[in-house]
């Protein structure tokens, strides 16, 4: 039996899964397996109650508008208290694109139509003119995350809300702010698809360690030649 097990709760995986973001879960599973760390995945969809103590990491992907609306209503009512309790005890959260937007207070789709958010991050999103599309690279704590963005929302961080990183290439949260994503403790939201983690193995390891209450340096090193090559290609695609 493994000494440790990473317990992952995938929220709405049947509805929030575009741009190959399911690959993020596969990346976490494989990197745990290679280190002898157990991996448990539990799927939670519309109407399912969520146990705030049952997971080390909660994951939300992106989805189409109709599906995002359904998830927004469920997340802000059925699962809201449990998600907040999970984060309050230090549990990790990774949310990508549509999932990221739902971590804020609201998403204003158009005048008079607002999707409620769960309020884990101090931000709001509003629909902009046109989409922000292309390869993107950002600086996070002196390192680089690279991926692909495709979003019509413009996410505005409140004063004091920390971004995930500084835009090196691409659009980021609004196309003009110079920042991408947001984070608070172990809660992370980002627009980076690709999927994100296979192209940024160091960040996958940070997430695993944070969810398990470890320092990333405590994780056994792996042969990351292929992962590093994928990261290099993603950076080059973004011009960084």
Can you give me a brief rundown of this structure?
This protein is of the alpha/beta class. Helix content is 26%, strand content 33%.
Give the overall shape, derived from the CA principal axes.
globular
CATH architecture: 3-Layer(aba) Sandwich
**Class from secondary-structure proportions:** alpha/beta
Biggest sheet strand line-up: 2-1-3-4-12-11
Low-confidence stretches: none
CATH fold topology: Rossmann fold
Structure summary, number of beta strands? 12
Percent of residues in helices: 25-40%
The level-1 CATH class: Alpha Beta
| Estimated radius of gyration | 17 Å
What does this molecule look like?
The chain has 240 residues and is α/β, with parallel strands linked by helices. It has one domain: Rossmann fold (3-Layer(aba) Sandwich), CATH 3.40.50. Helix content is 26%, strand content 33%. The chain has six helices and twelve strands. Strands 2-1-3-4-12-11 form a six-stranded mixed β-sheet, with helices on both faces. A hairpin with a 2-residue loop joins β7 and β8. The longest helix has 14 residues.
């Amino acid at each position: 039996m493994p000494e440790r097990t990473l317990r992952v709760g995938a929220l709405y995986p049947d509805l929030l899964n575009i741009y190959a973001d399911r690959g993020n879960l596969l990346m976490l599973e494989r990197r745990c397996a290679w280190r002898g760390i157990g991996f448990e995945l539990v799927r939670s969809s519309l109407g399912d109650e969520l146990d705030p103590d049952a997971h080390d990491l909660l994951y939300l992907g992106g989805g189409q508008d109709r599906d995002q609306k359904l998830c927004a209503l469920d997340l802000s009512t059925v699962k809201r208290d449990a998600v907040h309790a999970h984060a309050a005890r230090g549990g990790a959260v990774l949310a990508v694109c549509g999932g990221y937007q739902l971590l804020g207070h609201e998403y204003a789709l158009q005048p008079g139509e607002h999707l409620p958010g769960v309020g884990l991050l101090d931000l709001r999103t509003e629909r902009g003119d046109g989409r922000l599309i292309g390869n993107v690279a950002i600086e996070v704590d002196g390192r680089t995350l690279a991926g692909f963005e495709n979003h019509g929302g413009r996410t505005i961080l409140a004063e004091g809300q920390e971004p995930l990183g500084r835009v090196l290439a691409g659009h980021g949260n609004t196309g003009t702010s110079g920042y991408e994503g947001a984070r608070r403790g172990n809660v992370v939201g980002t627009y980076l698809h690709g999927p994100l983690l296979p192209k940024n193995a160091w960040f996958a390891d940070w997430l695993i360690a944070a969810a398990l209450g470890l320092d990333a340096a405590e994780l056994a090193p792996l042969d990351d030649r292929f992962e590093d090559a994928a990261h290099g290609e993603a950076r080059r695609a973004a011009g960084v």
